[in-house]
């Protein structure tokens, strides 16, 4: 895929040093951007690359597929929703991660 910028450049995963949530978090100003609209965020950054692991890069839009919430009050809500969606869509590569996740009531 032709990405709008290098997935491993400074706008991407910084030479494969950052993955998943860390790449998405770089796009957000915690002081300015919350509450954060899912649809507006995806409209702005949806084509940007997100390195999932050492082999796989997907679009930010693909990471947000399955995120049910339309708005997030803070980083914690956003990261929890992203984690659920990434695990559900096989975009979570951390070994043993399921052991640390409680099911949402």
Question: Topology of this protein?
Answer:
Layout: H1 21-25, E1 36-37, H2 38-45, E2 49-51, E3 57-59, H3 60-64, E4 71-72, H4 75-88
Antiparallel strand pairs: 1-4, 2-3
Fold and architecture overview:
InterPro entries: DUF5785 (IPR043903). Pfam families: DUF5785. The chain is of the alpha+beta class. The protein has one domain (about 20-100). It has four helices and four strands; from the N terminus they run αβαββαβα. It has helices at about 20-25, 40-45, 60-65, 75-90; strands at about 35, 50, 55-60, 70. It has a two-stranded antiparallel ribbon. A two-stranded antiparallel sheet has the order 2-3. A hairpin with a 5-residue loop joins strand 2 and strand 3 (about 55-60). The longest helix has 14 residues, at about 75-90. The termini are far apart. The mean pLDDT is about 90.
